[in-house]
Amino acid sequence: MTKNVGFPGVNEVVMLPRVVKKLQSAIAVPLQLDSSNPDALEAGLRVYNGKAAVNSVNGEPEVLERVLPIVKKYGASVVGLTLDKNGIPKTAEERVAIARRILQAALDHGIPREDVWIDCLTLTVSAQQEQAAETLKAVRTIREELPTKDGTGFRFEPLTDDPAVRKAVDDMVYDLYGEENPRPLADYIARHGQEMGGQQM
Fold this sequence. Notes:
By secondary structure, the chain is α/β, with parallel strands linked by helices. Helix content is 47%, strand content 10%. The protein has seven helices and six strands. The protein has helices at residues 12-26, 38-47, 61-73, 92-108, 129-145, 163-177, 185-192; strands spanning 2-3, 32-33, 53-57, 77-81, 116-119, 149-150. A six-stranded parallel beta sheet has the order 1-2-3-4-5-6. Strand 2 (32-33), helix 2 and strand 3 (53-57) form a beta-alpha-beta unit. Helix 1 (12-26) packs parallel to helix 2 and helix 4 runs parallel beside helix 5 (129-145). The longest helix has 17 residues, at 92-108. The chain is globular and about 50 Å long.
């Protein structure tokens, strides 16, 4: 569960630890603390019971230098977004380069590789069709060459019953995740029906 308390007029340094304590007293699920304010992140991590995750850093050196020491200090995991001050790169190669930068910075700060999650930032395929292949290529390259944990969120919206389209999505999932996710997407659709419209894979 990702928690962000950023809102105009809210003191995140005060509010985030309050929310963390309230949630941990009520539910037993891991939390991702999300804030652009390093002081708020540290305040939340200080009261967190267990291993939290920080969501997130990106490829900007200034952001990495502000946030990674806090991640290391509290033994948290961290999500790295493959973007920088220029936004989300158009090519897989550029996203992989940012992922390498994030991973190396984390390792340099003493954060274990297994505590780094890379998010290649999926864009809406219907609006950015040419970017879908680049995202998949980036995910595949990162998994093969770095590797780190994959934090990329894929959402499948069943806008067609065309078996060729569904077969293509099945092939995509299997190609990316292989034996980790061997069940065909068609089986998932058969079991979950209309729930597919709002579920992340």
